[in-house]
Design a protein that fits this description.
This protein is α+β, with helices and mostly antiparallel strands. It is built from three helices and eight strands, in the order βαβββαβαβββ. The protein has a single domain, classed as 2,3-Dihydroxybiphenyl 1,2-Dioxygenase, domain 1 (Roll), CATH 3.10.180.10. The longest helix is centred in the N-terminal third of the chain and has 12 residues. Bound molecules: zinc ion.
Length: about 140
């Protein structure tokens, strides 16, 4: 069976304060974020920078229950996840779950930037939170 993994889509970075992180990344990348978006399913506020074919996603918690809050309190700010673009998210979720990987959600969720997303738990991936994402077709 052919893999539907296509490329790294973005790298997610957990931040305490999205305003100051946007200023910081604007200086580093010499560009401006193209989008800010709340993602209710994850309890986060996101900000996106385009870097060639890839993106940087800044993530700030919107509440103490957000996974970003617990991540920062345990590990501090920094790289939170690596996101891969796949062309068939359901198929990859099926395959990975059958191979013993632990999926955080059973079905794809609506993520930021018009994507279906699913996460693999870092306990089965050698410590890195992995996100799969597939663009939601525009109607
Ligand atoms: Zn992400």
């Amino acid at each position: 069976m052919v893999s539907t993994f296509q490329r790294i889509e973005h790298i997610g970075i957990a931040v305490n304060d999205i305003d100051s992180a946007e200023i910081l990344y604007s200086k580093i990348l010499n560009s401006k974020p193209y989008k800010r978006e709340e993602v209710e399913s994850q309890g986060v506020l996101t900000s996106f920078f385009q870097v060639g074919d890839n993106k940087i996603e800044l993530l700030q918690a919107m509440s103490l229950e957000s996974p970003i809050s617990s991540f920062i309190s345990q590990k501090g700010e920094g790289i939170h996840h690596i996101a891969y673009l796949v062309s068939d998210i359901s198929r990859e979720m099926n395959r990975l779950s059958k191979s013993g990987f632990s999926l955080i959600d059973e079905k794809p969720l609506k993520g930021a930037d018009n994507m279906w997303v699913a996460f693999l738990h870092p306990k089965t991936t050698g410590g890195t939170l992995i996100e799969l994402c597939q663009p939601i077709p525009l109607k």
